[in-house]
Structure formats: structure tokens, C-alpha cells
Amino acid sequence: MVNKIKILIVDDSSFSQRTIRKVLEREIDFEIVGGARNGQEAIRMNNDLNPDILTMDINMPNMNGIETTREIIKTNPKPNFYQVLFY
What we know:
3 helices; Rossmann fold; alpha/beta; 4-stranded parallel β-sheet
């Protein structure tokens, strides 16, 4: 059994989340573990679900993608932290 790469999708647009999910689910090595709609939710879900990778929307209300990324790096970073920006 192959360990799948766990991905958390962070985007305030449900359309964008669905689109990203459809693209990533085509890869057999990826598992989408959740979708967060804002920075606070992303931080909580990062701690709860411990994904390997997060995709991060840069423009979100309350806490944007850059602020969220900085907080995640301080509190629960990923070994090889990647940020994927969607405009």
C-alpha cells in the first residue's frame, strides 16, 4: 500500500475548491483531506488533519493567504512547506 500525499485546499471560493479538488484527485498518490474557507479554518484544520501539502488562496477575507502561511510556519510547519497561489 502506497502512502498517499495528504492535501488541504484553502480557498474562500467553493468553485475554486471544487476545481482544484478535481484536478488533484486525478493523481492516485494524492488524497484531499479537507477544504478550508478562510485562514483561521486553515490553521485549525492544519493542526487537526496534519496534511502534507496545503494549497493556499492569497486573497481571502479576515486573514489572507500570506498571513495564514506565516502563522502555519510558526505553529505547525510542514517539512517542505509549499504554497500554491490561486488568483
